[in-house]
Amino acid sequence: LEQTDIYIRATRSDGDSLAVREALALGTAVIASDCTVRPHGVRIFQSGCITSLASAMQQALEDPKVKQPMQQTNYGTLILNLYAQVSKSPL
Hints:
The chain has 91 residues and is α/β, with parallel strands linked by helices. The protein has helices at residues 18-26, 50-62, 75-88, and strands at 6-9, 29-33, 43-45. The longest helix is centred in the last third of the chain and has 14 residues, at 75-88.
């Protein structure tokens, strides 16, 4: 992901993709289908529409902000902290 200009996630169904978040954190442009809610910074294209995908790719390649890492929330730390709080709670 670090050595690519664009990461494309073309799916018809998806969850919160770790690869999408990794690419954003590395500063790689991310283009993903509109099948679910995506993190801030992801360019969205209409699922199944090649014209929409091509347009998003062109915009990403022309964007001077490409390769500038984005700050992402560390959900791993948040979850571990929550587990620690719950394990200390009385039943």
